[in-house]
Amino acid sequence: MFTSEQEKIRIEKLRLIIEKGIDPYPNRFDRTHTVREIKETFSDRKDVRVAGRLIAVRKHGKSTFANILDDGENIQIYLKKDILGEKYSLLELLDIGDFLGIQGNTFTTHTGEPTILVEDLILLSKSISPLPEKWHGLQDKELRYRLRYIDFIVNLESRSAIETRAKIIRLTRKFLDDKGFLEIETPILQSLYGGAFAEPFKTYYRALDREFFLRISDELYLKRLICGGFNKVYEISKDFRNEGQDRLHNPEFTQLELYEAYKDYTDIKNLVEELFSHLTQNLYSSSKIIYQDIELDFTPPWKTVRYFDAIKEFTGYDLYDVDYKYVKKIIEELGIDISEDSAMIKSGKNLTPSYIRDKLIDKIFGDRVIPKIEQPTFIIDYPKSISPLAKEKEDNPDLVERFEPVIAGIEIGNAFSELNNPLEQEKRFKEQMVQREKGDKEAQPLDEDFLKALGIGMPPTGGLGLGMDRISMILANSRTIKDVIAFPQMRW
RNA sequence: GCGCCGCUGGCUCAACCAGGUAGAGCAACGGACUCUUAAUCCGUGGGUUCUGGGUUCGAUUCCCAGGCGGCGUACCA
């Protein structure tokens, strides 16, 4: 550690600083302003005490211009030997990256640059390792994600994507709190996982001598709260899925889930539209934003398309109420590769034909429909067999009251009128168990305690899950989910 | 998982195709300079070219294997 030529030189400077009787890591420095505050209300001849990281130095013998960076804002400072006297020589021992406290007086240079004329200079923290160079910054993507603390200093857009994400999460909480929702934390460490189709991370709880899981979804616990008499609940927190990574997936991700009693999926649709208006207005004062090359218009109402209509629109095939063989034929015609699909499809012969059929249809849907939908759209009315926690449509028991919001070809969530009939829920779980036993590793396990809660009774309820990382990525115009995650998962 | 591409001083890149002691800018170090902002000018140091093997008189360069990463693709309802 700290063995490069430049680091050794800085460590030697550190020694010289201590020798001069200066504490290179003092405990405190009282500021009168942040750099942002000075710049926002700049006027000449103001006495200020500010602090920041030294990021550029231009020496001219007995005077020096430099810049300090404070919480993403930088300002020029001007140091003169005739003002600083002995202190001016401290500059010899400073490096780019050091934190400085400055007392000075504001002025504007001949070229119009707001500047602080330094009257006193205090070293607040000595930096040992050099920052990347000033022209290109840190370009290497691996280093940018691994050394995120450097990326945030030198690449302003990395910082701003994270800021946008934080704003989105704050705005979402405010939106829900103002509507009377209660944020309630539910277990992340669970004895049984559920609420989504995914493989869990497994762990071991020694005191109980048994296997535990990191949750893949908050759903079943939040619905227990509805059964328990809370009418409006939500949670914004991490879920974990033991799967690969790409521009839309990180193994741990932030999910908003909310449940509201006496509502159905139509009400939840309206809520999603309203939430997005709230977000885009507060972030950009507009309901239109640019994502990559597309202009997205979030003005309600969004387009609503039924699941099978969307498939027909984008593939030309009507797959409603057809048999398994026909779907298989269509898959081949469309050239969709299922050779590497999950064990479920490979060992498909064992599974219920209607179940494989619906899984295959959903494969077509995921492959050929979702990526093509650009403008904010709700896909509604999914097949029942792939939606074991959703309530049937009153006029068609093969379909459920469910929707997924899709934006810029990205699925950002999932919602339904929650199934609250305990006997029907037990039946659906058992169907899942059958598929599970036949080889579908992602079929959902039966949660007896959840059934017990439904048995006590759950009112009609609308529920929603939203991927906050994906929403942040779209609203921050980031190409990959990694950019809105402060520390994305890397291989170690 | 598969395919393609990449890995060279602290950072950004060159040399590799067609093998001959690795170059530049920034950063660092020494010096000049009291309105610069990619400051300028003069000078100096810094490299196990990701790792291991192979071919060769000679490998950063060609070949093989591995590591790490990026992009795409698959898995992820």
Explain how this protein is built:
- This protein is of the alpha+beta class and 492 residues long.
- The chain has two domains: 5-131, Beta Barrel (OB fold (Dihydrolipoamide Acetyltransferase, E2P)), CATH 2.40.50; 156-302 and 375-484, 2-Layer Sandwich (BirA Bifunctional Protein, domain 2).
- Helices cover 33% and strands 27% of the residues.
- It is built from 15 helices and 20 strands.
- It has helices at 5-19, 35-40, 81-84, 141-146, 148-154, 156-178, 219-227, 265-284, 307-315, 324-334, 343-346, 353-369, 422-437, 448-456, 468-475; strands spanning 47-60, 63-70, 73-80, 99-108, 114-125, 182-183, 189-190, 202-205, 210-214, 232-240, 252-261, 288-291, 294-297, 303-306, 377-383, 392-393, 396-407, 410-411, 413-417, 461-467.
- The strands form four sheets. Strands 6, 10, 11, 14, 15, 16, 17, 18, 19 and 20 form a ten-stranded mixed sheet that branches. It has a five-stranded mixed beta barrel with strand order 1-2-3-5-4.
- Helix 6 crosses helix 8, helix 6 (156-178) crosses helix 15 and helix 9 (307-315) crosses helix 12.
- The longest helix is centred in the middle third of the chain and has 23 residues, at 156-178.
- The chain is elongated and about 90 Å long.
- The mean pLDDT is 90.
Radius of gyration: 29 Å
User: Distance between termini?
Assistant: 18 Å
**Helicity range of the residues?**
25-40%
In CATH, what is the homologous superfamily of the largest domain?
Answer: Bira Bifunctional Protein, Domain 2
Which runs of at least 5 residues are low in confidence (pLDDT < 50)? none
Shape field: elongated
Structural domains: how many: 2
Main β-sheet description: 10 strands, mixed
Mean of the pLDDT scores? 90
Query: What is the CATH class name of the largest domain?
Result: Alpha Beta
Structural class: alpha+beta
Q: CATH topology of the largest domain, what is it called?
A: BirA Bifunctional Protein, domain 2
Total strands: the figure is 20
CATH architecture of the largest domain: 2-Layer Sandwich
Please count the helical segments.
Answer: 15
